[in-house]
């Protein structure tokens, strides 16, 4: 089915059970796909261009150096301006293929066929492409929306349980942005991910992106959980998956909101968050490893009066509120120290109870 999106939205969005070759581009197209999906793709009767690239890209290789050989390959084919690149895989593949499409010939069309729940719920929609630098995540990138997003839920059947959980956190993020505690608690319960949750999260994100395509205001709300989450992810040496780090960041954001004097969260919600996140406790880096990464976050900015020895930065922090939409506040990175400590304490207590 085709998802309803705002009039004039840059990306057509389809949610299907199985892939449909009728949704592939007209004219010349090529593919960059995750090697692990090649058999599933061809087994579903989907065409495989002769110049396709089947790749293996772990999280730590989400770098510019990974994209350059793809650009060279497209130039040798050669790929012309009227061609389309199809990305098949998870968030790392879609971010890098989208970046490559933005760079090649100063921008060629592309489609994204996300195959993980995380990519379906977040990375595939919105036009953000990116690569990581040693200093932090997604510090290189471009806004280059795909022409079409085709999410086939059948690809999720063979996804490991940890990766399904990884994507669930981006869905929970949407509920917390909206302040919908009942929806958040529903998704925090044990049980399978529902198709309707993905549909609703994509529809919400499409509306936000359409109103604020360049992240000048409202779209920053989509960073809920990512401020502390990105720091935890990088400080763990990427042993934390992205969605897991976002989940920890969501709990941290709830705690920070309370520290900032906003409305307290229902204890039942916090208990569910803590229980789901407790297995990740051993992967949480100490605060001194996180603070430098927060200073280098792409949402951070220099404030007046900074010095080389003590950079006085501010960072756009997204604070959730029960029953109301999340809000934005520019705060010093150090405000995360207490929520970081409380997060560790809550998870440790839960681990000892269990």
Automatic annotation (TrEMBL):
CC cofactor: NAD(+); Co(2+)
Location of the 3-dehydroquinate synthase C-terminal domain: 170-299
Keywords: Metal-binding, NAD
Annotated ranges, domain 3-dehydroquinate synthase N-terminal: 56-165
Family annotation (Gene3D superfamilies): 3.40.50.1970, Dehydroquinate synthase-like - alpha domain
Pfam families: DHQ_synthase (PF01761), DHQS_C (PF24621)
PANTHER family referenced in this protein's UniProt entry, alphabetically: 3-DEHYDROQUINATE SYNTHASE
Name of the protein in its database record: 3-dehydroquinate synthase
Species for this entry: Geothrix oryzae
Taxonomic path: Bacteria, Pseudomonadati, Acidobacteriota, Holophagae, Holophagales
């Amino acid at each position: 089915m085709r998802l309803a999106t705002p009039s004039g939205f840059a990306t057509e969005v389809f949610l299907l059970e199985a892939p449909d070759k009728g949704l592939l581009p007209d004219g010349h197209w090529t593919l960059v796909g995750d090697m692990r999906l090649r058999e599933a793709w061809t087994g579903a009767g989907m065409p495989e261009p002769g110049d396709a690239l089947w790749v293996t890209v772990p999280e730590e290789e989400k770098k510019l150096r990974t994209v350059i050989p793809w650009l060279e390959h497209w130039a040798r084919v050669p790929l012309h301006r009227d061609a389309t690149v199809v990305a098949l895989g998870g968030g790392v593949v879609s971010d890098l293929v989208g970046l490559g499409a933005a760079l090649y010939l100063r921008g060629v069309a592309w489609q994204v066929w996300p195959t993980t729940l995380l990519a379906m719920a977040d990375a595939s929609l919105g036009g953000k492409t990116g690569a990581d630098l040693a200093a932090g995540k997604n510090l290189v990138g471009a806004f280059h929306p795909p022409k079409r997003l085709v999410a086939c839920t059948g690809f999720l059947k063979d996804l490991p349980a940890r990766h399904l959980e990884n994507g669930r956190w981006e869905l929970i993020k949407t509920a917390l942005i909206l302040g919908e505690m009942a929806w958040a608690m529903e998704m925090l319960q044990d049980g399978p991910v529902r198709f309707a949750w993905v549909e609703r999260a994509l529809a919400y994100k499409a509306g936000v992106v359409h109103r604020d395509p360049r992240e000048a205001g409202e779209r920053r709300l989509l960073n809920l959980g990512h401020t502390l989450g990105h720091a935890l992810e990088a400080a763990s040496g990427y042993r934390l998956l992205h969605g897991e780090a976002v989940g920890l960041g969501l709990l941290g954001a709830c705690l920070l909101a309370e520290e900032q004097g906003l409305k307290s969260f229902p204890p039942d919600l916090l208990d569910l968050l803590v229980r789901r996140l407790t297995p990740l406790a051993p992967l949480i880096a100490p605060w001194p490893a996180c603070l430098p990464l927060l200073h280098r976050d792409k949402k951070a900015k220099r404030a007046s009066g900074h010095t080389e020895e003590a950079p006085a930065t501010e960072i756009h922090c997204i604070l959730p509120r029960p029953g109301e939409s999340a809000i934005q506040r520019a705060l010093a990175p150090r405000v995360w120290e207490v929520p970081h400590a409380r997060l560790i304490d809550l998870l440790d207590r839960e681990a000892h109870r269990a």
